[in-house]
Design goal:
- With 146 residues, the protein is an alpha+beta fold.
- It has one domain.
- The chain has 3 helices and 3 strands; from the N terminus they run H-H-E-E-H-E.
- The protein has helices at 9-64, 70-80, 119-125; strands at residues 90-94, 104-113, 135-144.
- Helix 1 packs antiparallel against helix 2 (70-80).
- The protein starts with 8 loop residues before the first helix and ends with a strand.
């Protein structure tokens, strides 16, 4: 008859050492996982801000090509940004102050994106180069007047 030992000191110490190994592995992987998740979150929000700024500048320039004033263009740009931009973020420039057909209107948008996660300080803490805080988002649209 064969006898197997399902208990004893050997089985208990093996189980304890595996739990300790799992804890060490988790501690090593957690910072990398957090940086990855925080990067995805901030990248998504920064991309959203960039696309909103770009589309807002385009909307303002489209209004400008039909002869609108700089104030009207700025208002349209702000309205299409859904509250992301302020009047100080928008600059409207005409290549000809007389608004003659064939000249151009340029709408420049400068936005400072503030990170929503502590990603920048986390990367700096582990020895990486610091991210610019806030992240500058600049976009420009130029169209010719009709």
């Amino acid at each position: 008859m064969r006898r197997t030992d399902h208990g004893g000191a050997g089985a208990c110490s093996r189980h304890t050492s595996q739990r300790g190994q799992s804890l060490v592995e988790f501690a090593l992987v957690l910072p990398i996982f957090l940086i990855l998740v925080l990067s995805i979150i901030d990248f998504g929000w920064a991309l959203r801000a960039y696309l909103t700024a770009t589309n807002s500048a385009r909307e303002g320039a489209r209004l400008g090509v039909i002869g609108a004033t700089a104030d009207q263009i700025t208002t349209r740009t702000l309205d299409s940004s859904t509250g992301l931009l302020t009047a100080g973020d928008v600059t409207v420039t005409f290549s000809d102050p007389g608004h003659q057909p064939g000249t151009s209107v340029t709408v420049d948008v400068t936005y400072q994106y503030n990170y929503i996660t502590p990603l920048g300080s986390l990367i700096a803490a582990i020895g990486g180069s610091a991210l610019p805080d806030p992240l500058p988002i600049n976009t420009s649209t130029t169209m010719r007047l009709e």
